[in-house]
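Much of our argument rests on the idea that a fold can be written as discrete symbols. The amino acid sequence and the backbone structure tokens for this protein are reproduced below:

___
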Amino acid sequence: MSAIPRLPIILLAPVLAGLLQAAPADDIQRQLSAGDYPAALRQAQEAVQAAPTDERLQLLLVRSLLTIGRYDEADAAAARALGRVPESIQLRWIAREAALADNHPEAAARMTNQIREYVASRPYLYRDAANLVTFAKVALLLGADPKEVMDKVLATALELNPKQPEVYLAKGELALAKHDFDLAAKAYQAGLKQAPDDPDFHYGLAQAYASGDRAAMLAELDAALKANPRHVPSLLLRIDHDIDSEDYDGADRRLDKVLAVNPWQPEAWAYKAVLAHLHNEPATEEVLRRNGLHFWPTNPLVDWLIGKKLAEKYRFSEAAACQRKALLFDPTYLPAKEELASDLLRSGDETEGWQLAEEVHAKDDYDVEAYNLATLHATMAKYATLENGDFVLRMTAAEAPIYGQEALALLVRARRTLSAKYSVELVRPTYVEIFGDQKDFAVRTFGMPDIGGFLGVCFGRVVTANGPAANSAQPTNWQTVLWHEFCHVVTLQITKNKMPRWLSEGISVYEESQADPSWGMHMSQPYREMILEGQMTPIASLSAAFLVPHSIQTLQFAYFESSLVVDFIITRFGLDQLKAILTDLGEGREINQAIASHTEALPQLEKDFAAYARAKADGLAPKLDWKRPDPELLAPGAEDRLADWVRREPDNYWALRMRARDLIAAKQWPEAKAVLEHFLALDPSQIGADSAYLQLAAVHRALGEDAGERAALTELAERDDNAADSYLRLMELARLARDWPAVEHFAGRFLAVNPLVVPPYRYLAEAAEQQGEGAQAIAADRMQLRLGTPDPAAAHFQLARLLHRSNDPEARRQVLQSLEDAPRYRAALALLLEIDRPAAGALPASQPLPAPAFPPTISHP
């Protein structure tokens, strides 16, 4: 049996001391993580008395005092700790935090400088992972390059100790500060592997998910609060979400929980001030703001947070004022400068807004949002601008000549219609920016490129929208998008941006359908089912439905339900009462009070609206049987029983769909035609990719019945503002029938979805020519050439003929360009001789144009 080696007592003592103190420190840390702050403080005080030179115990004592808001005691405790462990940079860092919280900024600055001096003079003492994390934080504070800190200092710390939770926390915090949410999520996920129950990591993940996935954010907050129900950062983030959801009572209750932990928590008082502002209580708001500044009167975070939340409520002028206050306290506080830039850009003050964004980027080139804005600014400098007294419209230089004037004309019509309807004098001008790239739209709107799902956003006087090129994967009617967003301009200016989201969206969707019956949202089978199955959200909670939808369909239903509420208010109480509600909101009244004053109390309104919505749902195709087949009929092996059920249900929605599908698959065209005609007679409202109109059109086409196909597609086209393929086929059918007004009509419908492709302009050129509209035909031919027609020789030739007919000398250049592309083009050679003949006049008006080089069938642009 070998003997245990004997160590000198001077070497053994630190080992024994560490073993003795590890258990109390671990216990204190567990209590802090679980939210038992009084017990953690008591044990820390006792442990420090027993081992005053233990660095970790001293850190835990100061952290306990800071957590419960005893800032003056934390400041004093940190000073005592440094007297015991003067070489500790971790203690100096937390001493800095305590000094700031206790309004001793000079002492805080002194701690920062001392840490730098200690590390510079004795670097060998601070090469462990925990000290490298502290050094990384100091280096960032002193202006070090964030990427170098991440790649060198924190990476080294991780190599030294991959199990140190603080390293992952530091990486995540740095990534979050620079808006690098993917990197932050990865850091916190890695940290959770080391500390699965640590609420700080769940909270960090929640922050990383907040801007892109609210459901995931809430799940992580639930996990954090399960581990520690009093975890202040998680409670604050949940409060932030409550305010976004307009659950102000819930936010207030959670704020009371935070203040029960720390009665001087600055962010809690800032959120309280936000709630007072939203309740139109300015005196209370100022008192609450001052509570947040009680210990540290020049803390820029308080005004920054108030301004940030007001900006999210579109109160941009008030938000900008808050950021300017924060910058008065600390001109170097980049979060406030970045928020101020955003506020100004969203309120139309672009000169200062872009300048501030550039300043933030110059100061911190790792900040992803600042980099994105700086890059976008350079891109938008190349945009074309179209303006009149009411609008400043910006578009890409390539798209502006194609549909810029049409967009401007639509906006002018929307302004004239909606400002008169809602009796409002709008502030001029309105800024509208249409983006050719979805990522540019997302950066301009949200600061980040990877936020999808939005067609347009209105900030009050500034509208941003995805254009047709940005929506190429899922084409959308850009005209209805602009009308919708401009309606927001009207209602937000009436209410001074003080309206709940559901009402704002509801009015905009409602006004779409008032402008054009094919626009907007209409009762459909999914919406009917959701209403009758009780899936409607109460009006009081409707804004929250936009934040955490379970699916795309539930998000769309939130828009539809909101518009249905507006329809109900106007139908039952009149437009003037809706306008009065908006006026009250602008004067600061709360939505429930405003509704009750001009309609009825919200509980009764909820009840009456539910009945109205059910009646609307029941009114959709009332002669149809909407009952779904029993689930067992859909199980594998039940095909024969399902087929028998389908045959026995002549008026069932689902049976008709299945019967039509099966008959089409079997190419039993006459039988399919009869079923589809019966189906559409029962439910003529069907639109979308699975519409029975499209199936019926396909059946008519298979039977060679052009008139029937055209009739079916026309019915669909008058109901669906987004049926581009149907519009194109209708142009072809109308051309075959030489119905030139119809060709023009459906070309216009197509261009409202996608004005960036050639086919509709070819149809327009021929229709205009055949109707003697030479100028319109010339414009359509020019557009073909601009967009890159696949047959430029024919397009140049057609344009040359039209120009020659109107005695325009440009005809010669166009015919030469045609011959350059096709030197043996006989018709072009003949036209050139005609143009160059000395005594030649214009072509006889009766001389027909050669038929354009159309393909025999066009089904896609």
